[in-house]
Amino acid sequence: MKINLNLKKKIQIFFLVLICLVVLIFQSDVPNLKALTMDNYQGEMVIEELRLKVSADVKATWLNAEKEVWEPWLSSQDGFLGRQLFWDKEKEEALILVNWESKKLWKSIPMSEVNVVQQKFEDNVKAALNVGENPFKLIYEGELDKQR
Questions:
Q1: pLDDT digits over 105-120, tens only?
Q2: Is the dihedral of CA 70, 74, 76, 82 positive or negative?
Q3: Closest CA relative to residue 48, chosen from 22, 89, 84
Q4: What are the extents of the domains in the chain?
Q5: Interstrand relation of 93-100 and 46-53 (parallel, antiparallel or unpaired)
Q6: Which of 16, 60, 108, 122 is deepest in the core (most CB within 10 A)?
Q7: E strand or H helix at 51, and its extent?
């Protein structure tokens, strides 16, 4: 009986070690370990993603300011491919997707120039709504890479 217990214990240990080895072997092929940093995709199309808080009562003002300020400026930028505007009625959030030919072209635009256009946008909105500050708060800013 004692020999049977020792054999059973040794079999359990053997299988435990075998399972650990199998897990370790398959872990070496995890795709994330082979992933490239996003900087390697400088030459590929990228989508700028912006989310703003836009309440229903000022949605028309937001759309108008986008059309009057951002649209003409973006159209003049190298690498600009187009953009899409979305509005979520339930969350009262705007989603702006700006398509760029490459991350390199997008990021080559000086932030000082972007800030000037942003200020024009905010001045447009404040004048239209007769308010002291921009009501459209940035919730999220990021980028999406086209998948193959």
A1: 999 999 999 999 999 9
A2: negative
A3: 84
A4: 2-30, 43-145
A5: antiparallel
A6: 122
A7: strand 46-53
